[in-house]
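Lecture notes, unit on protein representations.

Consider one protein chain, 156 amino acids long.
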Amino acid sequence: MSDFTFLRAYKVINEEQDNGFDTIFYPVTDREIASLETELQSKLPPELADFYSQVGYGFIKKESGNINRFVDTYTLQDINLKRGDFEYDPDLEIYAEFYNNDKLLFFEVNEGVYLAIDKFNNKEKCAVYYFKDKIADSLEEFIHKILEQPDFLNEY
């Protein structure tokens, strides 16, 4: 099991709260995770499931010039299943070409630009991808990178 307790200081109780930081996370319930997995018809990669369970969703280093958003479970569902606002989103076509449905889009860098994680990875750690480039060997490594160097995604 991955340990994301180092992010606990950034977590708030609900979306009405502000913590005064440029990083903020909102809770995700076990019920929301189970519902997401039902809709996706597969378990979340273990590291992403641990992240949602321990931390939630929200923004990391949002003042860096990028959106830098860990999407909520409903948005993750809609993006990856191409529903709602994402049903006819032309920005998603490139991801279908790159990933052939074996990765989940989970993090919004900027409008229409997402990071992906291995969808069918049963290992404890899951690599993170920016288009075709592997940018971290694990979700935890990615988080540490962006906390230490908020604009590192601009290098890609």
